[in-house]
Amino acid sequence: MTDFTATKAMFHLPEGVIYLDGNSLGPLPRAAAARVARTITQEWGDMLITAWNRAHWMEMPARVGDRVARLIGAEPGTVVMGDTLSIKVYQAIASALEMNPARRVILSDTGNFPSDLYIADGLVRTLGDGYELRTVAPEEVENAIDETVAVTMLTEVDYRTGRKHDMKRLTEKAHAMGALAVWDLAHSAGAIPVRLAEAGADFAVGCSYKYLNSGPGGPAFIYVAPRHAETARPALSGWLGHEAPFAFDLDYRPGRGIERMRVGTPPILQLAALDAAMDVWDMTTIEEVRARSIELTQLFIARVEASCPALTLASPRDPELRGSQVSFRHPEGYAIMQALIARGVIGDFRAPDILRFGFTPLYIGPDEVEGAARILAEIMDKALWDRPEFKARARVT
Amino acid sequence: MTDFTATKAMFHLPEGVIYLDGNSLGPLPRAAAARVARTITQEWGDMLITAWNRAHWMEMPARVGDRVARLIGAEPGTVVMGDTLSIKVYQAIASALEMNPARRVILSDTGNFPSDLYIADGLVRTLGDGYELRTVAPEEVENAIDETVAVTMLTEVDYRTGRKHDMKRLTEKAHAMGALAVWDLAHSAGAIPVRLAEAGADFAVGCSYKYLNSGPGGPAFIYVAPRHAETARPALSGWLGHEAPFAFDLDYRPGRGIERMRVGTPPILQLAALDAAMDVWDMTTIEEVRARSIELTQLFIARVEASCPALTLASPRDPELRGSQVSFRHPEGYAIMQALIARGVIGDFRAPDILRFGFTPLYIGPDEVEGAARILAEIMDKALWDRPEFKARARVT
Predict the structure, then answer these.
(1) CA A29, CA A277: separation in Å to the nearest integer?
(2) A198 occurs within a structural domain
(3) Which of the four, A182, A208, B281, B283, has the lowest number of CB atoms within 10 Å?
């Protein structure tokens, strides 16, 4: 059994703050500060250029990628770190489209994180030639996967509502229809058990600065299923994805397996922070974190619904159908969130009306959940949000 | 006049090392360690998600970009930091191609850094439709710019030989022929005066971990000429390049000016290191650094040619025609460089036969140049490289 007091002690959490925004930026793992300092002074400072070999910097994207792989049900050697999530989305969908050349449609949903849609739109415009980004409502995705779809591009957990797609079922539908499946795990990796290999996903991507606590701008990751690893063509074919980067050949030859998805020089300081942040996973399992997350989110929903009738649950009520966050709607959501932050309860607001709270058992327990719900109730009461005259106003807003 | 003793004192340089590889990875600016530590503990640690606003993280890519702009002759507000150089090359050439739709040729040279060629090759394959990457020898570039060329993609300073293209002349030729000019400043920024605006460059890109000393994997930069800033379409259209990223609109609208070239979440730890590293430029000017660099490289060439006849100068002899590095050829270049590194003189080797030495006046002076040349001479003598029997062997290798 996980000792969540011990995992919490691994993080720096400011006094007087209840941090429910680890789904946006995870807090500082204490070990990360020391680890980055060591990388700077003992590696960069003292080893200079030789640290690429002596401090094994060059292997970090794959070595740390393997640590992430264990959390998302990916085979060893199938995940590599680098770039940002948007770049990794581009690589995944560009590669997938090329593997399905008779088709022209990227299928996504309107609940997807907008950057994924923007990136797909940019790719479609670059490709021209009848390529199309088709978006449907999240609940219509399954029916919309038909024999015109080249690739599905879906984010497993909706960034606003926490609604969770059924990865296995949608991947199977995609394959049955002759499409490839690309999954964005931004709100899944480190939050819920993901079983990429078992689900048969073709590509997956994600970021590390949310539930993996790597710090602001930490590197993204990309997964390529082993069956595609030696054939996928990386559209962003940078030198560190070359079979022999230091041969400085004029012609590109993709590297072995997942290595080909590397592009440029890896961000070593950010990777060092991530590497340190991953140590907490030696003390627990994603399954135990998930079980605890469900307890916490159920408790939060119960408390808020009991004391804040003006807030409407925006997340699925069934915990099996949502990720590790809970969202409520209110027309004055922005103002409410500002008031919460002023009281030390940090969640975030997502337009137009979503109050979003992330629950991260590594450092959040029932006491914080009760405290956050109590402060939220006080704010809602103080501001008279629950009174009939306010409700009348809110309805016409 | 610059006090180069004072600039040198800003860097951590290990005892017993003569570091002539700042053109590959700049050494640690002392201020960078403290600055990154502060960013980690006081910003990430204590402010958590609110640091995006309170610590002005979100504006860092443009603010630091402006500091870089001053070194490369770019107008304020035309440079933004992010991603890796390979990604920025992709953005620049993809945007440029789209601005010249009647043509299909990217012109580059065989001396270009291979990653630029790989990236262009990947883009051409993605575009299909008759697009072509055409490469010629560096000295043939000017003649090869004809009315079929859509965009020239050139690295100003050759990574192996230090040979410098005439940016203004080639840009004018490109424009005269109806092509756009994209310049890679990897070995220029912080090394030599660059005058992007004066030369009329359309796009420029570069990295910060070489002569700008931002540390391993520091962010790249991209410049877009003001005349294109509101029309260039970023092929990699990520959310932070959107006009209103936090509106979470489903449709992409490019941001104002250079902001549209941002893609994903910026790497704040690496940006903090770069920001600290830029402080040294408050103590000197790129013109004074260039004048000193020429003195140092001329001295090194004179000393090495006097004592190491087996080494052949691979860089242009005229300092006006080269960047801030000096390269020599020798068939056993790899072994010679290993011997140098073992003696504390750190340069690097580039296949097949190049010994490369970067001269960075911010922290390298005449004493280090004399010392490096003396140790090189000792190695060449000790290993008998200069003797006839070795030369005979080397010729058949």
Answers:
(1) 6
(2) yes
(3) B283
Angle between helices B268-277 and B60-71 (to 10 degrees): 30
User: Is A163 in the same domain as A302?
Assistant: no
d(CA B44, CA B50): 9
Same domain? B218 vs B327:
no
User: How far apart (Å, rounded) are the C-alpha atoms in residues A228 and B164?
Assistant: 42
Give the CA distances from residue B43 to residues A109, B30, B393, in Å, rounded to whole numbers and listed in that order. Answer: 35, 20, 60
Look at the block and give the residue holding tokens 């399905």.
A100
Interface residue B137 vs chain A (CB under 8 A):
no
pLDDT digits (tens, 9 = 90+) for A146-182: 999 999 999 999 999 999 999 999 999 999 999 999 9
Q: How far is CA A204 from CA A187, A195, A215, B21, in A?
A: 12, 11, 21, 37
Q: Does B110 touch chain A if contact means CB atoms closer than 8 Å?
A: yes
Partners of residue B210 in chain A, C-beta under 8 Å: none
Model pLDDT, residue B396: 44
- CATH number, domain containing residue B42: 3.40.640.10
B316 plus B210 within the same structural domain: no
Q: Which residue has the tokens 């069934």?
A: A318
Whole-structure pTM over 0.90, yes or no?
A: yes
Closest CA to A63 of A79, A40, A46, A39: A79
- Of all residues in chain A, the percent with pLDDT exceeding 70 is 96
Distance CA B165, CA B151 (A): 16
A203: three-class secondary structure by DSSP: strand
Q: Say whether residue A275 is in contact with chain B using an 8 A CB cutoff.
A: no
Residue B13 lies in a domain: no
B282, B304, B335: which is the final residue of a domain?
Answer: B282
pLDDT at B386: 54
Structural domain boundaries, residue B313: 285-396
Same domain, A267 and A338: no
In a domain, A300, yes or no: yes
Structure confidence at residue B385 (pLDDT) = 58
Please state the rounded mean pLDDT for residues A283-308.
98
Q: Is residue B22 part of a domain?
A: no
Q: How many CB pairs under 8 A join A and B?
A: 271
User: Using H for helix, E for strand and C for coil, what is the string for B220-261?
Assistant: CEEEECCCCCCCCCCCCCCHHHECCHHHCCCCCCECCHHHHH
Regarding whether A193 and A153 lie in a shared domain, the answer is: yes
Residues A294 and A196 in one domain: no
Does one domain contain both A314 and A360? yes
Residue A396 has pLDDT above 50, yes or no: no
**CA dist., res. A36 & res. B215, Å (int):** 12
Average pLDDT of the segment spanning A262-281: 98
- Residues of B in Cβ contact (< 8 Å) with A87: 83, 87, 236, 238, 263-264
Q: What CATH number corresponds to the domain at position A388? A: 3.90.1150.10
Running along chain B, 397 residues long, what does each successive block of 10 average in pLDDT? 96 97 97 98 97 97 98 98 98 98 98 97 94 98 98 97 98 98 98 98 98 98 98 94 92 95 98 98 98 98 96 97 97 94 95 95 98 96 62 48
Residue for token digits 């930091």? B81
Mean pLDDT in residue range A231-250: 93
- pLDDT tens digit string along A328-347? 999 999 999 999 999 999 99
Choose the final residue of a domain: A282, A304, A323: A282
Q: In which band, very low, low, confident or very high, does the pLDDT at A281 lie, cut at 50, 70 and 90?
A: very high
Q: What is the DSSP letter of A112?
A: S
Together in a domain, B276 and B289 = no
* Residues of B carrying an active site annotation: 113, 184, 209-210, 356
